[in-house]
Amino acid sequence: MTSHFHRPATLDGAVRLLQERAPSLAIAGGQSVLPDLHRTGPAATHLIAIDQIGALHGIEADDTHLHLGGAETHHLIGHSDLVRATLPALAELALMIGDPQIRHRGTIAGALVAKPQDTDYVAALLALDGHIRTTRRSLNIADLTNVPAKACLLPDELIISISVRRPEAALYQKHAHPAAGYAALGLFCARSPDQTHCLALIAQGRSPCRVDLPAGQPLAEAGPDLVTHAGLTPFEAALLAHFIGHADTAL
Ligand SMILES: Cc1cc2nc3c(=O)[nH]c(=O)nc-3n(C[C@H](O)[C@H](O)[C@H](O)COP(=O)(O)OP(=O)(O)OC[C@H]3O[C@@H](n4cnc5c(N)ncnc54)[C@H](O)[C@@H]3O)c2cc1C
Question: Which of 6, 126, 166, 222, CA to CA, is 20 to 30 A from 65?
Fold first, then answer.
């Protein structure tokens, strides 16, 4: 199948192309789409490049939330002064993703669509009540992780931005798979201004889960629930206990 490449200048132009040219597929950094193309051949005749559309870029913060354009790369998120000032744990998370090529080309929206259960961002979005604004609606992170994201989004639907609550303090810890770099286990801990804590866990092949703790309760008390929800092995449970112990000291 021959592929045609389009580079629309606007969001409306991209949506129109996705509607009118079938079969079509949006491509941002190409870090998931291109390996798929090599492995299984083109899934679409028309590739619609969206990485240079201004409406999909930008990083902003208000008093309560941080907002990230869907086409922002992991590298830019990791090195953004604003992210580092308002939510440094998210900047650190972005810089733990993959390798330099993945970080320079791969985007946050692409990561959420390609592997919503496995991307490190899902731990942050789950802990920080993340919202995803698309060209059609507003989604919770659970909308993406409960079904494959490609099934959740309509064929012409694009993620415009991702918003997360700003915690008082947060920490992300990850045990990376030695080959791929994805999180074998990842724990995002956040403390809110009212001193409650929220712990969100991702474990490869399992559904992400979150436990909330009232103010004053030791973080270790979230451990058993997280182990049960995620169905962790004894090794993973020991690693989780180590992560929680470190978070308890750091937060
Ligand atoms: C070797 C390797 C290691 C990796 N390690 C990690 C890791 O440690 N942690 C981690 O979290 N991820 C990891 N990843 C995944 C990586 O983060 C994603 O491949 C990348 O972010 C995808 O973004 P992209 O812009 O390249 O998406 P693309 O490949 O361009 O697109 C991927 C999918 O998303 C869709 N899409 C893209 N942008 C939008 C949008 N705005 N709206 C709607 N749909 C959209 C596309 O249509 C396509 O279906 C790894 C990937 C590889 C190949």
Answer: 222
